[in-house]
DNA sequence: GTCTATATGGCGATAGAC
DNA sequence: GTCTATCGCCATATAGAC
């Protein structure tokens, strides 16, 4: 295969992924048809199959792309400063990044497909959750040396993520609303004091 | 309609619901066919349509049944005793009840269908989550009068539910495992002290 | 490799007898 | 109301020309 052909091949594959990603995010796996993806990507249906084998192959490629590129949480650099301010900044960033239409759709998708595509949540945990837990745990260990910082980091991240899932994905805003600030404030108070 | 006919009607409807429930739980909405439900319930496909109109009607009936009867969380009687023991008991009960194959499948289902069937998560919040939050909030208000007990209750329940979702539904056991006891112990310490 | 056209099967929903 | 048999559609996947 010449360099030019390979380049064209990659371009086509990326063109397909770019077209398929919003379709899977918006409609989920079962409700997204290969016809629809072909149309959205601007290629013929057969081209999808030559590049990705079948629908599952295309979906798995999409999941890897999402976990590795699109939905990286927070930053990877270590946290610095006073605990109260550091935790507040981290909470704000995390809430802002997760409370985004595409990210919420991503979470819905990996939960919905956690049985039939078990690799998808694993990619999510490895590339998105684990790094966030790691930098928070390492920071806490420098400031709360006698406590179980790994468990506390889980509680911190878990309470925030659950808040978003409940309010946004489960439509909790309409049933059991609560101000985000109260969750953040009390969570920080519990941990710092 | 005579009493006998009505009784037969109800029996048939319940027979259908009983057959359809495990199918929807195990395979989700899109992957469950009306043929499969008819077979599982031991009735003809036409009978499904006579009683519930269409697939959506049957699914909504299933959701109501699950939220109202099958997945009631914890108990509704007020909590009593010392905070540390009360919180520990509540955590254990909540974890045990949520970490059940059917309950996990129920959570997966309402998240997966939260867009196309937005009533399903609302039923879940009203019948399952809200009562649990209520009794915990009322208990905390008797023992921690100066604190924002509603927010703390959300943090408590949220951290536990998120732990189960991450470990069980997202297969976190294999990627980022942690002992449940550490989550419970540290959560209680944060709140009580 | 990429296209147009097609094969094949399963789906939700219905018709008509009883 | 309940059954058997069937319709019409859309899904995934493939065939064959270029």
TrEMBL record, chains A, B:
Every copy of the HTH tetR-type domain together lies at 10-70
- Record Gene3D superfamilies: Tetracycline Repressor, domain 2
Q: Name one GO molecular function term.
A: DNA-binding transcription factor activity
The UniProt entry, under InterPro entries, shows: Homeodomain-like_sf, HTH-type_TetR-like_transc_reg, HTH_TetR, Tet_transcr_reg_TetR-rel_C_sf, TetR_C_Proteobacteria
Binding region for DNA: 33-52
Which GO BP terms, alphabetically?
A: negative regulation of DNA-templated transcription
What Pfam families is this protein classified in? TetR_C_7, TetR_N
Q: Which UniProt keywords apply?
A: DNA-binding, Transcription, Transcription regulation
Protein name as catalogued: TetR/AcrR family transcriptional regulator
**Per the UniProt entry, what species is this protein from, by scientific name?**
Gomphosphaeria aponina SAG 52.96 = DSM 107014
